[in-house]
């Protein structure tokens, strides 16, 4: 028990001292994750809105694909991105393997289907409510999607936060394509695994505390956004 309390105290000491290695790892993790979530939102929100708002041939297949891709195994995504970016792969000349860009690509592939699928459901529910009104006003496809996205903005912010929570906890894919290189591609999750195996429990636990704090902040933000949405609906 004393050993655990001692390690815990040292971990909080690293956080309070704003240890340089700790800061570098957290900074890279946030930069990679936020970049991936922004790109995933730019792709996933319009894609989910189109699938949710319109009836078209293959809509059922699109639903099935989105649902299936939500459960993509991270290590499989990491392997596919690795093969694409390796020296013998089609994108090998870009020399992106073992860089933050490779990790952003892997996280984007993982998060985009989640954002698209959650957006599809939110937009579909809203579209059923507004369908007759849109038809009576003669609203075009682009205006329809824009109106639905705007009206669902609080729900979609929750979707984005869910995507962030999924991405920031990712380890398998980023480990494969990033290589966990110190001061280059070392993320919080990969660093926790490495430092634990090395016996450097203080840094591993400090990173774990920060990761847990981020999870709590994301969940608190989701609850706050839902509260805003409820108040806006009754305003």
Q: How would you describe what is shown here?
A:
By secondary structure, the chain is an all-alpha fold. It has a single domain, classed as MetI-like (MetI-like fold, Orthogonal Bundle). It contains ten helices and no strands. The protein has helices spanning 2-16, 20-53, 59-69, 74-85, 100-137, 141-151, 153-168, 172-178, 188-198, 201-233. The longest helix is centred in the middle third of the chain and has 38 residues, at 100-137. The mean pLDDT is 90.
How many structural domains does the protein architecture include? Answer: 1
Average pLDDT metric: 90
Task: Give the structural class.
Answer: mainly alpha
- CATH fold-level name: MetI-like fold
CATH architecture: Orthogonal Bundle
Order of helices and strands: HHHHHHHHHH
Beta-strand share of residues: under 5%
Number of helices: 10
Query: Which parts are unreliable, with pLDDT below 50 for 5 consecutive residues or more?
Result: none
Outline the biggest β-sheet: none
CATH H-level homologous superfamily name: MetI-like
Question: What is the level 1 CATH name?
Answer: Mainly Alpha
Compact summary:
This protein is an all-alpha fold. Helices cover 80% and strands 0% of the residues.
Topology of helices and strands:
Layout: H1 2-16, H2 20-53, H3 59-69, H4 74-85, H5 100-137, H6 141-151, H7 153-168, H8 172-178, H9 188-198, H10 201-233
Features:
mainly alpha; 235 residues; single chain; MetI-like fold; flat; 10 helices
């Amino acid at each position: 028990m004393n050993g655990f309390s001692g390690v815990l105290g040292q971990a909080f000491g690293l956080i309070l001292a704003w240890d340089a290695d700790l800061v570098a790892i957290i900074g890279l993790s946030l930069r990679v994750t936020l970049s991936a979530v922004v790109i995933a939102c730019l792709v996933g929100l319009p894609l989910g809105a189109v699938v949710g708002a319109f009836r078209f041939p293959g809509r059922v297949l699109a639903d099935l694909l989105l649902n299936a891709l939500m459960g993509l195994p991270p290590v499989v995504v990491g392997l596919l991105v690795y093969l694409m970016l390796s020296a013998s792969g089609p994108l090998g000349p870009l020399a992106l393997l073992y860089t933050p860009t490779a990790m952003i690509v892997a996280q984007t592939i993982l998060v985009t289907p989640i954002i698209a699928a959650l957006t599809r459901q939110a937009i579909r529910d809203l579209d059923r409510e507004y369908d007759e009104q849109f038809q009576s006003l003669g609203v075009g496809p682009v205006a329809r999607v824009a109106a639905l996205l705007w009206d669902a903005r609080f729900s979609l912010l929750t979707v984005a936060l869910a995507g962030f929570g999924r991405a920031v906890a990712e380890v398998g894919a980023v480990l494969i394509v990033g290589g966990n290189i110190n001061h280059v591609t070392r993320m919080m999750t990969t660093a926790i695994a490495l430092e634990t195996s090395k016996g450097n429990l203080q840094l591993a636990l400090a990173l774990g505390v920060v990761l847990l704090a981020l999870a709590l902040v994301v969940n608190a933000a989701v609850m706050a956004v839902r509260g805003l949405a409820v108040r806006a609906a009754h305003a």
